[in-house]
Amino acid sequence: MTEAPGLRMFVDGKWVDALNGRTFPDFNPWDDGVVVTVAAGDADDAVEAVDAAARAFPAWSESTPAQRQRVFLTAADLMQRRAGEIRDLLAVETGCGASFAGVQVEFAATLFRQAAALAYAPVGDALASDLPGTHALARRRPVGVVGSITPWNAAVSLSARALAVPIAVGNCVVLKPSEESPWSGGLLFAEILAEAGLPPGVLNVVPHAPGEAGGIADVLVGDPRVRRLNFTGSTVTGRRLAENAGRHLKPLLLQLSGFNPLLVLADADVPAAARSAAYGSFVHQGQVCMCSRRIFVEEQVADAFTEEFVARAERLPVGDPREPGVEIGPLINEWALRLIERRVQEAVDRGATVLAGGRAQGPCYPATVLTDVPADCELALEETFGPVAIVERVPDADAAVERANDSPWALSTGVITGDEGRGLRLARRLTAGMVHVNDSPVNDQPHMPFGGSLDSGWGRFGTGPGRDDFTEVQLVTSRAT
Ligand code: ADP
Q1: Residues 62, 199: one domain?
Q2: Which residue from 452, 449, 418, 415 is spatially nearest to 433, judged by alpha carbons?
Q3: 94, 149, 244: residue to mutate for ligand 1 pocket, most atoms within 8 A of CB
Q4: Residue 104: which domain range?
Q5: According to the UniProt entry, where is the signal peptide (predicted)?
Q6: Does the predicted interface ipTM exceed a cut of 0.95?
Q7: 68-92 tens-digit pLDDT
């Protein structure tokens, strides 16, 4: 990986240059070294990719379950065989540490195995009918071409999720990875799935230079052959995409920002709570949409919890994620680092107290804990994509629920309590699309419904529920003449 080889794009089963001939450098956020030079696609390449996907669709939608199953089982094995190499790639392309990179590889391999099983799942229901002698079938069928737009932060798991279920149920995909992760979030999958036997055109990957996502997205939204979109990224971009998609009546699945709470109740096991809080706030230096940003802790345990949480934050080693033991690697880019610095500074200027971290170290920002953050600071109002947690004392569990729900975002919430039943009862009152009792909000398994409520998105990914978003039901009735 030190030689920075060139990567082309993948269209119609072939590795090709961008039609415009341009390339762009893919940087390592740790040292700004060029990891690889990548073809810089644009709208014209996206049209070619949609052409290829549309051509491949009739045959792929009629492929046998055995063929689809074989592709995904082989791809799962290839992912695991290449795990070490993929972990290294995630480190240099996205600054991801070895343990979270390992989680991503396992997630993708498991997802692929579940996608393989989907090939043989029932494709519909036989319905009762009030008309005598009539047969009625509600059959789920693939929709055609699916456009997938994915982010860099968990490049392997999120791109795997954006393509596996759609393809397993018979669709063809055009994947637009993030400009920050064209390799691990895109071209890697082209390589693996092609080697696993996926026919040409079923998966096409169009990478692009920074600032040029819009032209490719416009093709995916506007081309009538693309029947569904799925997007994982920020609420700001998702809203823009949804406005545009609305004009074309194009259904889309949206996984957007979170601003996730962790509730620590007075009966919690304090060391366990501090462990969940540290993982939930600082995994992959806080660059996971499910990360806990706001920790509401009941007064009785607030001192003990804060002391342990701060001690854990201070122990997290900062540095190059390729070094063993490093937990906090670089932020994805300079812009992200400066945004965190600015927001923490604003909070401090207005009276917040820094209990841990709070100062950049090269391209990294250490695990940071703040308290007394004024409610109208940017930090207290919306997601800041980095390792910064706000601790807030609350008088009781009702106040914790009220504060947790006081946000337009509702992705994931953790509740730490000694009484599991109480946690389950509180879950009913929380707006979040996902609630985890006695775990951090960072919690995801490929077969479970993943998604948020309110401004955190629409629809659910998952090898179970996700199928509904990538198929449509056709009703067929028949009777003898
Ligand atoms: P993040 O902050 O996680 O990078 P973004 O919403 O900026 O979130 O990026 C998520 C995905 O959205 C990336 O693939 C990015 O290239 C893409 N993207 C950025 N701008 C647009 C746009 N105007 N239309 C569609 N997709 C876009």
Answers
A1: yes
A2: 452
A3: 149
A4: 9-256+452-475
A5: none
A6: yes
A7: 999 999 999 999 999 999 999 999 9
